[in-house]
Amino acid sequence: MPSSTHEYLTRLAALRGDAILVTTMTAAKIWPQIEDGVLDFNYLPSAMSHAADIALGMALAVPRRLVICVNGDGSLVMNLGGLVTAADAGAANLRMLVMDNGVYEVVGGGRIPGAGRTDYAALAAACGWPTAMRFSNAQELADGWATFAGGPGPALAVLTTVDPPGTKIQLPARHPRQALRDLRAFLTGERTV
Amino acid sequence: MPFAADAFLQALAQAGITHVVGLPDTETGPVFDQPARHGPRVITVCREGEALALAAGLWGGGARPVVLIQSTGFFESGDSLRSVAHEMDVPLDLLIGHRGHSGKLNAGYPDTAPLYLPPLLQAWNIPTVELKESEDFEELTVLLKEGAARTRGVRAILIPQ
Q1: Residue A3 carries which DSSP code?
Q2: What is the model's pTM?
Q3: What is the SS3 string spanning B94-150?
Q4: pLDDT band (50, 70, 90) for residue A167
Q5: What is the DSSP code (8-state) at residue A1?
Q6: Residues A30-53: what's their mean pLDDT?
Q7: Nearest residue, CB atoms, A45 vs list B43, B46, B87
Q8: Is pLDDT above 90 for B86?
Q9: Is A77 near chain B, with CB under 8 Å?
Q10: Which residue of A has its CA nearest to B18?
Q11: Which of A33-37, A89-93, A125-129 has the lowest mean pLDDT?
Q12: CB-based contact B31:B20 (threshold 8 Å)
């Protein structure tokens, strides 16, 4: 039985350690219900696909720390070239989790092109990501985490996801503009930006 | 005469720039040819919209990037421009090749790019300055050093082509 976004993210909270976490779309409206710390950046300006670009930038700026991007399948297919860019940039500390539910959940559930047919893990591998995995539920994610997080990067894992109707989503308390400044201030030791 | 990529990167380094994110164009292509040189790290993206968001991530991570794209790439970047420039309000300089501005590039061939760049920059409320010459690197360093004091907002620096 596939896990929900909330179940995956609850498990991720116990696994992430001191990683920077970038979420977008549905995940960005669920993660703040679980955690909302200085290392969390919930990207919600409805600029689909760009959370992965932002996470890549953070990974290149802070190579000593893992950067985890919780991406959507709809966001990923809007910017498949980003997989090429990340591999070309050698972002060894970048990890991407693709919430694969086959639909544009955040706008009401319209079908994503290629849903059920496109193999995102195979795409990542073909683009040069040395680690590409698939998990069907939160327990599998936990069991495979050491390989995923500790193996060569960039690494991508596809998470088969089913969200029950009525899943509670809400906007994060901090605007992404402030969250990005908080993150920069923390990482650079600045008091204010 | 090929674009003086080493001098360009040196000018950026003098202004404290850590990363150049973008795509090669007709003029600035040599910047992306040898990314292992000293100075700012050069990151090549697959489409220009990636560049702005990637640069925002670099800034969030503590770096000081610039974006280097041509006007045609600026036209492609609207979605991430809105997000980065207006939603995130990231202080970022966009170095934009002003294709067709000098009339030297593709002389005699009608080009709509120079027609639409200025009004689009204005529509996006992006402050804009233009170098007198494409290799006026002294002026570029001055502008970027001034930009270091900015904590908010995107600015365009046009490179005439």
Answers
A1: B
A2: 0.96
A3: EEEEECCCCCCCCCCCCCCHHHHHHHHHHHCCCCEEECCCCCCHHHHHHHHHHHCCC
A4: confident
A5: -
A6: 92
A7: B87
A8: no
A9: no
A10: A61
A11: A33-37
A12: yes
Scanning every residue of chain A, which has its alpha carbon at the shortest distance from the alpha carbon of B59? A184
Chain position carrying tokens 């001034």: B146
Residue type, B110: P
Q: How large is the ipTM?
A: 0.95
Place of tokens 């970048």: A94
Whether residue A192 has pLDDT greater than 80: no
- Cα-Cα-Cα-Cα torsion A100, A106, A107, A112, nearest 10 degrees, comes to -10
In this complex, do A85 and B57 lie within 8 Å of one another by their Cβ atoms? no
Residue owning tokens 């292509």: B29
Lateral strand order in the sheet of A131-135: A40-43, A20-24, A67-72, A94-100, A155-160, A131-135
Say how far apart CA B50 and CA B66 lie, in whole Å. 13
Which of B19, B61, B83 minimises the CB distance to A45? Answer: B83
Residue B58: CB atoms within 10 A of its CB come to: 28
Overall residue count recorded for chain A in this entry: 193
Instruction: Quickly tell me which residue has 């901090």 as its tokens.
Output: A174
Cα distance between residue B75 and residue B56, in whole Å: 18
B14 shares contact with chain A (CB less than 8 Å): no
% chain B with pLDDT above 90: 73
CA proximity to A5, closest of A158, A172, A147, A167: A167
> What mean pLDDT is predicted for residues B77-92?
92
pLDDT above 60: residue B91: yes
CA distance B119 to chain A (A): 23
Chain A residue nearest residue B45, CA to CA? A85
pLDDT band at A193 (very low <50, low <70, confident <90, very high): very low
